[in-house]
Specification:
Oligomer: single chain
Structural class: alpha+beta
CATH architecture of the largest domain: 2-Layer Sandwich
CATH topology of the largest domain: Heat Shock Protein 90
Shape: elongated
Mean pLDDT: 79
Helix content: 25-40%
Number of helices: 11
CATH superfamily of the largest domain: Histidine kinase-like ATPase, C-terminal domain
Number of domains: 3
Largest sheet: 8 strands, mixed
Strand order of the largest sheet: 5-4-3-6-2-1-7-8
Strand content: 15-25%
Length: about 500
């Protein structure tokens, strides 16, 4: 039996093809070069892009001769074995070490000029010459005199470009995928310093533990005025690089999802070879999704609470306007009033209690007490309604009595309004209220109609036709243009 050996060779075109697959978009090449500078403890990286060349220059630790050998070693384990940078102990971002070969899909020449300590060298990686020498892996190295003014650092130059680079896309990708939040790291693109994405709004810190590592970050609920459909979702980062933007079920939230932004860091997540997504069937990703489901459930609660607060403020303003219209109409037609002819004041606010706060020195009045009834001797004791914390309550007084108005949610199946004991309840869950609320100004008309209706029923509870005629007259005067108000409400 004869034994021999086989020489294993790798076609250089395959190395380029692999690199192109891993970095399918040209902008990814620039991102990879900038992140290499971050791994080298650079505090500043200058990126210059023209139609002729791309230059990425940093003030990092640079490379000596051994470092250059590692740099061009395909599949080197250097960054895996030494996963922390020398000076700042940064978590190193680079992974595959094949970005420089991928660069040859965008340019014919790849030049590395680096200096560290007493070494200054240049390697010119010419695609045509490199592929022509099928048996050789050697690249031309030139040792240069030290540049004392420059200091340590590395400059990468791509020339004879095969593709054009869109500056807008390059900027967007760099902002997303390089650690601009690091206080010791700055990237300058064509003379302009890139700034990290910062959102204004209610910030919610996230810190969750898993068996695989920590999930942390910050989510921001934008003000409704700043909500946008652009760049929807949350950036999920691994080693400070955005791998993917996820919605985490927010696609079912409607317009509410346009208010949520932020970033989540989960360095333990396994990513696909092209770094464009996660390994979905991994245990790490499954646990991550479970944690994020819980996080997003809490975010939705906060959004709902904020929405209710916003509704409360809006409803309070609208209800005040509607009540002033009714007061104007009753002052003009005192014969239609069940309270007496002279309106003397108003109180109210937003709260979760049936208590209507009186002016100082007066006895508190409760919504369900007989003191608020139009005709207490003829009515049964009113039912007590438990109000939500976001109920809107306002009271209008006429002489010694008056009416209280409450806007609260009583369920979509409940009536749009009802009254008990001098209290008018308006159901904000009713479909008509919801429809008019979206239309803005028409909500005032909707509430004015309800108030006119219920007050007319108070005046003529046993004769619906008479109550209807009173409502018509009240509503007509309430909606007419008026100036000045005959009895303006105190502010």
């Amino acid at each position: 039996m004869n034994s021999s050996t086989l020489k294993v060779t790798v076609d250089k075109s395959h190395i380029v093809a692999i690199g192109e697959k891993l970095y399918g978009e040209s902008v990814e090449l620039v991102r990879e070069l900038v992140n290499n500078s971050y791994d080298a403890d650079a505090t500043q990286v200058e990126v210059t892009i023209t139609d002729e060349k791309i230059i990425v220059s940093d003030n990092g630790t640079g490379m000596d001769l051994e470092g250059l050998k590692q740099y061009f070693n395909v599949g080197s384990q250097e960054k895996i074995l030494k996963n922390k940078s020398e000076k700042f102990s940064r978590d190193r971002i680079g992974q595959f070490g094949i970005g420089k070969f991928a660069a040859l899909t965008a340019a014919r020449t790849f030049e590395v000029d680096t200096q560290r300590g007493g070494f200054h060298g240049r390697v010119i990686f010419d695609k045509v010459a490199w592929q022509a020498s099928a048996e050789s892996w050697e690249l031309p190295l030139t040792v240069l005199p030290l540049d004392s003014e420059r200091g340590d650092g590395t400059k990468v130059i791509l020339t004879d470009l095969l593709k054009k680079f869109d500056l807008v896309l390059v900027e967007r990708r760099l902002v997303e995928s390089v650690p601009l939040m690091d206080p010791n790291f700055e990237v300058v693109l064509n003379g302009f310093t890139l700034l990290p994405k910062r959102y204004q709004g209610q910030k919610i810190p996230i810190l969750e533990g898993t068996p695989f590592g920590v999930i942390h970050g910050e989510l921001v609920i934008l003000p409704a005025s700043s909500a946008s459909t652009l760049d929807l979702g949350i950036d999920v980062k691994v080693k400070k690089v955005t791998i993917k933007r996820e919605l985490f079920g927010m696609e079912t939230w409607g317009r509410a999802m346009t208010r949520v932004r932020g970033e989540i860091h989960a360095d333990f997540l396994p990513v696909t070879s092209d770094r464009s997504g996660f390994v979905l069937d991994s245990e790490e990703y499954k646990v991550f999704c479970q944690v994020m489901e819980k996080v997003m459930s809490e975010i939705k609660k906060v959004l709902t609470h904020l929405a209710e607060q916003t509704h409360g403020r809006k409803a309070s303003r609208v209800l005040k306007d509607a009540l002033e219209r009714i007061k104007y109409s009753l002052a003009k037609h005192p014969e239609l009033s069940p309270f007496g002819p002279i309106p003397i004041g108003e109180e109210g606010g937003i709260g979760g209690s049936g208590l209507i706060r009186p002016k100082k020195g007066r006895k508190p009045a409760v919504c369900d007490e007989s003191s608020l009834r139009a005709k207490p001797e003829k009515e049964k004791k009113p039912k007590v309604h438990s109000l939500s914390p976001n109920a809107v309550i306002k009271k209008v007084k006429f002489g010694d009595t008056g009416v209280s108005c409450v806007i609260d949610g009583f369920g979509p199946e409940a009536s749009e309004c009802f009254q008990e004991g001098g209290v008018i309840y308006i159901n904000r869950d009713h479909s008509l209220y919801r429809r008019e609320e979206k239309r803005g100004q028409t909500l005032i008309l909707h509430l004015t109609r309800i108030l006119a209706q219920e007050i007319s029923l108070m005046a003529s509870p046993s004769t619906p036709r008479e109550a209807f005629e009173k409502q018509s007259e009240l509503l007509k005067s309430a909606l007419e243009e008026r100036s000045p108000h005959p009895n303006p409400a105190p502010t």
